[in-house]
Amino acid sequence: MATVMTTKSAATQVAPAKSPSTKPDQPLPLEPGDHLTRAEFERRYHSMPEVKKAELIEGVVYMPSPVRHKSHGKPHGKMMTWLGVYSAAKSETDFSDNTTLRLDQDNEPQPDGVLRIDEAHGGRSRVTEDDYLEGSPELIVEIASSSASYDLREKLNVYRRNGVQEYIVWRVYDEQIDWFSLQDEQYVLLHPNEDGIVESRVFPGLRLKVAAMLSGDLATVLAALNEPAKTEITT
User: Fold this and answer.
1) CB-based contacts of 57: which residues, under 8 Å, 6+ apart?
2) Rounded distance, CA 14 to CA 4, Å?
3) What burial letters (b/e) apply to 30-51, b meaning 16+ CB within 10 Å?
């Protein structure tokens, strides 16, 4: 004889529906690998003040791990000192550290460093009403672990395509600093001259003694900024 399940017994077999963990009006959390629009990326990022760095690169969310002292924080600090000392002597320039940058609808990186020509002096980027950078700054600096980093892959292509004139990547594990110059819509690697110096083609007097920077000799690096400029600012 077939067994007939009563309404009461059936109810005990069905798990109650779980209420959603997120309220309808509350943004979902950012997760590495999410594919988002720039507007949705910003909405989620703003709702997570505990997150200090997240980037949207080609529509994909990247959330770097906490940074270490020797492999990131220390070289980052030296690069920011170099940019800051240069910018302090050039009123037409502006620089920032770890600022969100609205490049295009699929890309909102947070570069380690930015050096830009102020928009009042013909610069290619601007400060928005809600205090973000928008557009293509003339120079971007990134501190990367090695040549395998997305700084030298996805980001490099994004910066090139958006017309960032110069791009510097310090590959800490490789003990190498790459300085790229945008020429004919392609990045060309600039090589040190006979004095071991790479000089900007955009910012007059911005020169880097590569070996000194790599060895931690910041005094020598900064002294090079006082040498006569060989270029003129171009926009």
Assistant:
1) 107, 109, 150, 154, 155, 158
2) 16
3) beeebebebebbbebbeeeeee
Q: Which domain does 133 fall in, by range? A: 69-226
133: enclosing H helix or E strand: strand 133-135
Q: In terms of Cα–Cα distance, which of 146, 141, 159 is closest to 198? A: 141
Structure tokens at 209: 């003694």
Structure tokens at 79: 């690069």
Pairing of strands 133-135, 101-102: parallel
Residue 26 lies in a domain: no
Q: What is the pTM of this model?
A: 0.84
Note whether residue 135 is domain-resident. Answer: yes
Provide the Cα torsion 99, 103, 107, 110; round to 10°.
Answer: -10
Q: What gap in Å lies between CA 127 and CA 116, rounded to an integer? A: 11
The pair of structure tokens assigned to 52 is 């200090």
Confidence class of residue 216 from pLDDT cuts 50, 70 and 90?
very high
Instruction: State how many domains the chain has.
Output: 1
CATH number at residue 107: 3.90.1570.10
**Token output for 167:** 């791009």
Q: Does 117 fall in a domain?
A: yes
Q: Evaluate whether residue 151 is within a structural domain.
A: yes
Confidence of residue 24 (pLDDT cuts 50, 70, 90): low
